[in-house]
Design a protein that fits this description.
The protein is an alpha+beta fold. The protein contains three helices and five strands. The chain has helices at residues 9-15, 23-27, 55-60; strands spanning 7-8, 40-45, 68-70, 75-76, 81-84. It is globular and about 30 Å long. The two termini are 19 Å apart. The structure holds FE2/S2 (inorganic) cluster (FES). Residues 29-30, 32, 34-39, 70, 72 line the site of FE2/S2 (inorganic) cluster. The site of FE2/S2 (inorganic) cluster (FES) has 11 residues, from loops. Keywords: 2Fe-2S, Iron, Iron-sulfur, Metal-binding. Belongs to the adrenodoxin/putidaredoxin family. InterPro entries: 2Fe-2S_ferredoxin-like_sf, 2Fe-2S_ferredoxin-type, Adrenodoxin-like, Beta-grasp_dom_sf. This is 2Fe-2S ferredoxin-type domain-containing protein.
Length: 87
């Protein structure tokens, strides 16, 4: 997936029909306010094109690999490739 400059990763995914939520996340996600942690994605390429992790991400993703992000908290500034619904 490739996203445009300065776009929010969650918005961009939804616009492009990319399904970022697991079943549970679809039923109850926080709507992009960085509160539920269900919009988690793994960045395969282009980590350097993303905004820095927010405080919420730091907390929520503490036990996850470095390349995991919350899509709604992430601004995209260049080409990236994303894996949705990482384990
Ligand atoms: S949509 Fe809830 S944390 Fe991203």
């Amino acid at each position: 997936m490739v996203a445009a400059d300065g776009a929010n990763l969650r918005e961009k995914a939804i616009q492009n029909g990319v399904d970022i939520y697991t079943f549970g996340g679809k039923l109850m996600n926080c709507g992009g306010y960085g509160q539920c942690g269900t919009c988690i994605v793994a960045i395969v390429e282009g980590l350097e094109n993303l905004s820095a992790k927010t405080d919420f991400e730091q907390r929520c993703l503490k036990k996850k690999p470095e390349n995991y992000r919350l899509a709604c908290q992430t601004m995209v500034n260049g080409p990236i490739s994303v894996q949705t619904k990482p384990k």
